[in-house]
Amino acid sequence: MEEEKSLSSLSDSDEVEESQIDPEEAKDKVIGEPEVPTLQPRKRYSSFISQPNHPEVPELVHQKSDIKMSKKGVNVFVRFRPDNATEQKLGVQCVDYHPDQKKVSVSCDGISHGFNFRRIFPPESSQEQIFLSCALPLVESILEGYNCAILAYGQTGAGKTYSLLGPGYDHPERVGKCDQELRGVAPRLLQSIFHQIYSTVSGEAVYKVYTSYIQIYNEKIFDLLNPAKEKLKVYQDTDKGLWITDATKVPSKNVKEVNQILELGTKYRVTAATNSNAESSRSHALLILTITKHLINTGTYRASQVYMVDLCGSERISKTGVVEERLKEAQNINKSLLSLGNVINALAEKRKHIPYRDSKMTRLLQNSFGGNSLTSLLLCCSSNSTNALETISTLRFGDRANMVHNRPVINQRESADDLRRLLTESNVKLINQQKVIRYQNERIIEMETIIRELFSMMGSSQVKAVQRKIQIPLAPMSRNPFDKLGVNTFVCIFSFLHPADVLSMVGVCKSFRQRLKCENLWRYFLIELKQGRMGFKFIPVETWDINFDKVESYWEIFKDKFIKSLAKGMPEDPESASRGIHLFHNMR
Ligand SMILES: Nc1ncnc2c1ncn2[C@@H]1O[C@H](COP(=O)(O)OP(=O)(O)OP(=O)(O)O)[C@@H](O)[C@H]1O
After folding, report:
1. How far, in Å, from the CA of 564 to the mean position of ligand 1?
2. Which atom of ligand 1 is least distant from the CA of 271?
3. Where on the phi/psi map is residue 551: left (φ > 0), alpha (ψ -120 to 50), or beta?
4. 339-380: per-residue pLDDT in tens?
């Protein structure tokens, strides 16, 4: 199995050779294989998804959430579970739900306590509703490279494991075996993440997913995937962020593999029977997903960590009736939850010192509360009067968590190899462009020579005929026929080139740009643009019915954009260039 490394510490050498893995074949792989799979999105998965009832991803097809997660704040949700048999006998309902699903009031000893949260779920709410609100809106951010945390908090027996994982997740042999509609937030989130990964357009990104599963028991961190590893340590630095040394990270390709990891871990998670819960979790469990995304086109690596946290329940020792070993556990559980409460209070009050180091749990959740993470906190409560005090205490905790501000950022870094590759590609492009420019320049010189020869062969009567036709007075002293006609050789060449070529050459070739100082050339070019004749190399003069009176207004529109940097000198004879072009078209 691969050892834990911080996400951001993944160096290029950590990335194994990329291979395309067929998700079908991936299903049969066993956990703990040494190779790190790369999850290449497949186009065919996209088409699966567009078929509404395809068996591969049936329940994901129409999933939508009406919740918009706050990135800065902790998003607090509340779920009330149905009464159990004892509660039904001993108590009554003490909760009033407001129809807006955001307000709730709890009655205790004749006093009503009101609270506001992002959404409140009454006992009849389904597992799917919880997932759609608390977790689905995070999926996009997770795959963008944000850290996310989903935490279940509440009194013992209030439904944290049920909501986060599902019924049966306290028993290794029942992990992942519950009915589909009873699956909790975490398995649904995993499915959604893998679904998104495989349905991204192939070739854009390559993903890798690793899973870790740890527990905090009696203030020590244990690796649930390798119980021989005890007392794991938490480290933090500005570069690598927060990481747990030595925690096993298992490369995972699909939900089935993560379920196998959960199954393995659940064997070692400490649970015990208490008066409040026949299968009470005695440790805080953290399922940690590490997702790396390599964006091929930009050579960027993004990495996110997803914390799915099933906290132990707060409990009144007198009520739960625990003794000896269980009592020590209960004291430790309460102590760490108290530390969490203190951290939340300090953050809510914007104190300078936040006591993250008071317990292992608060240290590990440093990103989730007040740090680099998007956080969804699910408060699990009973709505029965026998638990009213605990419910109020849970809701007060959530009330303070509402005031906590986080600072999530996309975890991103560039890969040196990819940057080198992109640089080489740009250099090759540049060399090719330079070749094209050289070729074009050679052609221009060649054409200039031909045109000069052509003009020198023209007798003075021919030149006069041309002059009469276009009504340009001859400059009597000029020796060069070009000058006589008021035509610049380069202007002539310009009229032979495709305007798009001209523009691209101007963009890349300094000497070309310098020769194109004459404003009239630009006028000509703009007229061509305006008249939509960019597609023709030679423009028949018959169709060339430009109203020269309007040239000024075209010119005004584009002058600033095109000319400012290019045409510093004003033409000596503003008419000459356009006349020259006109002449050339007439001659052809
Ligand atoms: N929404 C619900 N609908 C039906 N049954 C529920 C619901 N929530 C919890 N339960 C049941 O209540 C019992 C206690 O739930 P669970 O073990 O999830 O509590 P917990 O908060 O994780 O407790 P602990 O902190 O002691 O581990 C379980 O039998 C569970 O199946």
Report:
1. 72
2. 27
3. alpha
4. 999 999 999 999 989 999 988 899 999 999 999 999 999 999
More confident call, 362 vs 278: 362
Residues whose CB falls within 8 Å of the CB of residue 46, separated by 6 or more in sequence, listed in order: 199, 201
What does the alpha-carbon distance between residue 73 and residue 369 come to, in Å, rounded to a whole number? Answer: 9
Superfamily of domain 2-414: Kinesin motor domain (3.40.850.10)
pTM here is 0.65
Within the chain, all domains assigned CATH 3.40.850.10 are found at: 2-414
- The model's pLDDT over 479-526, given as tens digits with 9 standing for 90+, comes to 444 444 444 445 545 555 555 555 555 555 555 555 554 445 555 555
Measured between alpha carbons, how far is 305 from 290 in angstroms, rounded to an integer?
Answer: 5
157 among the known binding-site residues?
Answer: yes
CA-to-CA distance for 304 and 208, rounded, in angstroms?
11
Q: Would strands 234-237 and 74-81 be described as parallel, antiparallel, or unpaired?
A: unpaired
286-330 tens-digit pLDDT: 999 999 888 877 778 888 999 999 998 876 555 555 555 666 666
The finding on whether 184 has its CB within 6 A of some atom of ligand 1 is no
Ligand 1 center–CA 159 separation, angstroms:
3
Instruction: Give the number of the atom of ligand 1 that is nearest the alpha carbon of residue 380.
Output: 21
160 is an annotated ligand-binding site residue: yes
CB 162 near ligand 1, within 6 Å:
yes
Strand (E) or helix (H) holding 242: strand 241-244
- Alpha carbon separation from 505 to 59, 143, 238, 440, 539 (Å, rounded): 55, 42, 48, 8, 20
Q: Is 366 annotated as a binding residue?
A: no
DSSP 153: E
The answer to whether the annotation marks 535 as part of a ligand binding site is no
The atom of ligand 1 lying closest to the CA of 276 is 26
482 vs 22: CA distance, rounded Å: 70
